[in-house]
Amino acid sequence: MNVPSSPTHSGGENRPPLVFTVQTEVNPILKRAAILSTEPEQEWTTWRARWAGHDVVIVASGIGKVNAAMAVQSAIERHRPRVILVCGSAGGLSDDVLPGDLVIGDRAIQHDAGVNLGRRFVHTGVHVRGGGRRKMQRGFIPDAGLVDLARRAGADLKHDGNGRPAQVHLGPIVTGDQVVFSDERKQWMRETWRALAVEMESAAVAQVAQANGIPWLAVRGISDAADGEAGINLARLSEYVEDGESLAGWMRSQGRRLGYLVRHPEMPGKITRVVRGVRLAAERAAALTEAVLHEL
What we know:
The protein is α/β, with parallel strands linked by helices. The protein has a single domain (about 10-230, about 285-295), classed as Rossmann fold (3-Layer(aba) Sandwich). It is built from 7 helices and 14 strands.
């Protein structure tokens, strides 16, 4: 299947597909691709590679919407891709979507874009240009041809023996600058949009792709159930720029980590499960992305 050239750039067949992921989940992609060159940037890394019969551009940014948008816009300006494929892990929001499964997004929504009215949050979407003026847009729709291709590729995907065989689901993916380990937030996102997965980049990439007139698709492997059972206080485990690079700053960050782990002895086991889940999810998302590339 050949995806049509984007309306803003001609000569689509000569332009590479762009595969976007985050730095912590890029290894399954790099293992599958033949790397031709590496271009490290300040906030992200770009690889030129040969993958699934295509010359591709692989971009891995930091986590979150702004990091993703900066990296993808830079790659668009430099490499003029004909399609953008988002690949990575996500939390599952439906009882039918289990760790190890795959979700193909039929919409990407920024769940944290709206108005906070105290006890009530009203989702408004984000500002985009439409009809010659600025309007609000609640969700971004992927290229229908890419969605259909991914569904067929997912049905034919042969999974390895690493855990439960994946089921492939089609539905909304929600994006926000929040790691979600909350039963209440999970229920709200599921009820509001019938969302199947939550993560931190796809809708931002979709907004950038739409602004540049480039077809896009997001596929996500499910790493966890995004509920309170999997909850980890990442604020206590993270290092902060504000701590500085001094020995005292390093000791403060280590003290936070140690204190949190001492007070919560169950956390090492939870962290291990989350890491394993993310690894499996990223591997399966990379396998489906490879299957999509084979058919482009």
